[in-house]
Structures are given as C-alpha cells and as structure tokens.
Structure to design on (152 residues):
C-alpha cells in the first residue's frame, strides 16, 4: 500500500523570490529615509537660524542699535541680563534686558556645534571649519558655518 503523504512548506525557488522582492523594496525605501534625515536637519537649522536672528534684532532694539559682541566663540550678551550699554549683570532694575536665549546658543544641526566664529564679510564666502555659526559683529548678521548653507 502506497501512502501519499503531502509535505507542506515552501520550495527553495519560492523563498528566493520572496527574498528578491524584499531586497527590491528595501533598495527603494532606505534612500528615502536618508533624505528625510537631511530634511529634518535643514528644518532645524532654519528654525535655529530664525530664532537667533530674531533675538539679535531684539537685542539691537534694546541696545541703541548695537549688536551683541562676540566673546570667546559665543554671544554671552544674548544669554545674560544686560543694561542699555550691553554690560552683563544680575537681572534687575540695573540690568533690565535679556536674556534673549535662556540657556545656550542652539547648535548647528549639521555639525552639533554652537561655537560662533567671526566673519569679515556677509554673506560669508566660505565655512570657517568651526562648524557652528558665522557672525558678522558689525551688523549682527549670523549664518550657519556649513558650506551648503552659507547663504541662508
């Protein structure tokens, strides 16, 4: 007596076809995730840049048109209380302005650095290598220290 036992399972060809289909899907989906990371960094950079520019303009309004001074790679007058001359002190009646940014300058999302480097021309023509922000102290203009985004 012959028994006909039917085996259930996938053949090697069926498994290979599924693997090929999954590889094709992965090849089309993964690059889209890579560009979404860049898009997120660009959005964060635009937001940080807008915030910095707005706060620098507010500082200039309170300080008779003078821009914050660049000191040791930062703009401490934006993160501290100041008087009309831009002197830093304890918040109160003698130092009524600021802080314009509560904690620290936001980092450049492409580099993760918040260091500020002086630039003699604006818009800047090249990145400094510092990776944070480029600042033109005479006018108070600021730009990202990232080659692809210098003219933002």
């Amino acid at each position: 007596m012959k028994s006909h036992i039917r085996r259930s399972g996938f053949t090697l060809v069926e498994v290979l076809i599924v693997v090929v289909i999954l590889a094709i899907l992965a090849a089309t989906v993964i690059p889209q995730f890579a560009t979404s990371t860049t898009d997120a960094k660009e959005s964060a950079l635009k937001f940080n840049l807008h915030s910095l520019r707005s706060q620098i303009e507010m500082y200039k309004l309170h300080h008779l048109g003078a821009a914050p001074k660049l000191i040791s790679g930062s703009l401490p007058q934006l993160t501290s209380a100041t008087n009309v001359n831009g002197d830093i002190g304890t918040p109160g009646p003698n130092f009524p302005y600021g802080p314009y940014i509560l904690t620290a300058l936001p980092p450049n999302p492409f580099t993760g650095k918040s260091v500020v480097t002086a630039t003699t021309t604006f818009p800047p023509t090249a990145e400094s290598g510092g990776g944070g922000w480029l600042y033109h102290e005479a006018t108070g203009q600021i730009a990202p220290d990232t080659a692809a985004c210098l003219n933002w």
About this structure: The mean pLDDT is 92. The CA atoms of residues 45 and 109 lie 6 Å apart. The two ends are 84 Å apart (CA to CA). Residues 12-62 form the longest helix (51 residues).
